[in-house]
Amino acid sequence: MDPLIVRLAVLDTCAVSDALDKLGLPGAVVGISALTGPAKIAGRAVTTKLGAPLPGLPKRHLGAGAVMASTPGDVIVVEHRGRADVSGWGGLLSRGAVRRGVAAVLVDGACRDVDESRALGLPVFARTAVPVTARGRVAEHSCQEPITFASVAVKPGDLVIADGSGIVFVDQARAEEIISTAEDIHAREQQMAKAIDAGRAIGEVLSGDYEDMLKREA
Prior knowledge:
Layout lengths: L2 H8 L2 H11 L4 E2 L3 E2 L6 E11 L12 H6 L5 E13 L3 H10 L3 E8 L2 H7 L3 E3 L1 E2 L9 E5 L3 E3 L2 E3 L4 E5 L2 E5 L4 H23 L4 H4 L2 H4 L7
Parallel strand pairs: 3-4, 4-5, 5-6, 5-7
Antiparallel strand pairs: 1-12, 2-6, 3-8, 3-11, 9-10, 11-12
């Protein structure tokens, strides 16, 4: 298995987001959460971009290209610019994704067939759920090309972690640096948690050192 994904999976989105803050990098997503129950996943992004039907687009259902491009452990990331009035993902796609071993699906917009995806055991993160079909309303504009997901630039192969707190992307070009920084933050917070559990005063544990943890190095 990809060693970077193994290391990322040990962390949580909060530690990775903190690492991005410390390094002055973007990547954390706001406003998208798990719709199919608690889930924690880490993998590499397979991207797809949705938009209005236009002449000359591929004659395939939206998302099918991303499913076909995925390998076990990948995370399908769907750009739909926050559109909430029509679905950008559905149950048949979820079935195909599960067959390919996809770890999760992230949609910057709405999805449908939430109960079906939940029954399949596929984590789906989206802005909301709607029953309205994409047929005739939405088309796939691209697959496995750079996209924008909730203001974050995402390239195919970038790393992503998602859990109950949200979603964070990790640029593959700086993944080692970001994950190493997150590991350091995680280790320090684990020591703080142990101190609190041992009865040390929380005001003492969360002292000035805690507030300065994310200061960028000169």
